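Checked the freezer inventory, then went back to the computational side. Two predictions to log before the end of the day. The first one is the construct we discussed on Monday; recording sequence and C-alpha cells without edits.
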Amino acid sequence: MIPQMSEPVALVVGIFLMVLGVSFIYKAYQAGIQGRLMYWEGFLPFTLISPFLLHLPAGKRSLVKPAEGLWVHAVMAPIFGVIGILLLAAGADFTGLPGVATLNVAMNGFKWGRADSVIFNRRTGYQFPIIPRAGKELAKIFGGKIHEDEDKKYSQDNGSYDQAKSNVQ
C-alpha cells in the first residue's frame, strides 16, 4: 500500500515511471529484434535479477556481459514488453493522463465501454480482472474434446510396420 502523495511528487514519480517504461520497451526491442540481453556476471542472485536492473550502457572494464540466444527472443522480450507497457500506463496515471484507460481500450480491440482488463490505483497498485475471465475461456479451449473422423481413426488392427513393409515389396 502506497501512502498518499502530493501532486508535485506524483508528477515526478509518474515521469520516472514513464522513463523507466521507455527503457523497458527499448530492452524488449533489444531482446526481441536483436536477441541481446545484458546481465551482470557476478554473485548469482544479482545475476538473475540484473537484466531488470541494468538500464545504462556498461563500461569497458565491467562485469556486464551480453547474452544471446533464442530464449532471449522467446522469454525475455515479452516480459520486458509487458513490464514496459505497465510502467508507461502507471506513469501516465500518476501524471494525470489516461494511461490505464487507454491500455484497457487497446486490450479490448479499441472498443469503448467494455469491461476493464487492467485496473490501477495509486494506493493499491495493479489489479488484473482479465485473468479470471481469460481462465474460464482457456479452460474451455484446453478442456474440450477433439472430434475425430471415425473412418480415419488409428487402430491397432491395421497391422504393424513389418506387415506394411512386406505388402509394399
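The second is the one RB wanted added to the comparison set:
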Amino acid sequence: MDNYPINYKDPPTCDDYPIELGREVDPANRHPGVGYWLNDPFDGHYFPFSIPNDKDPGAFERMGARYIRLSDDKESLIGTLGKGYPTYGLPLYLLERPDDGGYNPPPPLSLEQLENFSPDSPLAPKIQEVLEYLRDHRLTAEVARTKRLLKNQKALRDQVVALYKTAEPLERHLLDMDMQLTSVRCHLQSNQAYSKISSTWLRLHPPPTHANTHPFYVEPIPPPHRLVLPQLQDEPEGHTPSLSKKKRGPKKKKSEKEKAAKPKEKKPKKNKGGKICLRCNSDYLSLL
C-alpha cells in the first residue's frame, strides 16, 4: 500500500489502487486514505471491529468496520465504513490465554527485560522489526503502551532526583535553624525571661484604677430608652386615655321615698357549720 500514496488534493480513482483495492473490492472508491487497510473477513489480517451502521443510521444496527488502521500512538484501532464516514476507536490489549489443563504458565518477566522495551534501549529497533513482521495489532499496542509508560516513568524519576538535589541543602539549613532555636529556647526558659518581660511591662504601664481589669468583665447594659409615639397635629401631649374606658361619676344617693318604695329583700343567710335551721331560717344559738 505504501507504493500507492494518495493525493488528497486530487483523489485518485480505483484504477490507481492495487488490485485488492480496485473495482472488484471497492467499486465506489471509498478508501479513506493512507494508513487504512481493507478489513476483509477472508484475509489473514482481519480484525473483528463492530461499529454503528452509518449508511443507515435509522436502523440502529452495527456492522463490521470496512477499513481500519492503527492510531497515531499505536495503542488502539481506528475503524470506519469508508471515505466521508465517521471514525471510531477501539483500545487494544493482549488477551489472557485460557487454561485448558495442559497450559504451562510463562516464565516471569524481569525488570531488566521490561527495560528493553524502552525507546532508549539498544534492542528497540529489533523489537520494532519483529512487530512489523508479525502484524499482531494487540501485541503492537501493548508494546507501544509499555514504551510510553517507561518513558513517563523515567521523566518523573528525573524530576524527583532534581527536586531532591535542590531540597537537600535547604533541609540542612532547616535542621541547623531548628537546633539553634532549641538552644535559645533553653536559655530563655532557664532565666525566666518571658515572666520577667511580662512583669516589667505591667510596672511600666499599670492598668487604670477606675476600670475593671477582670478578664470576664462585662460592661453594664444601659436602661432602655422610653419609646415615644409620634404626635399628630392638634393632639394633646401626655397620656391619652382609651376611649373604651368611660369616666365614672359620683354615685347618687337614693332618697327616702325610693328606699321605702323598694324594700330590701332579705337574702338567705349562709349556713356555715350547720348553725341555721332550714325550716324557720333562724340561728340555733338564738333558740337556745
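For RB: The mean pLDDT is 76. The CA atoms of residues 52 and 131 lie 30 Å apart. Let me know if you want it refolded.
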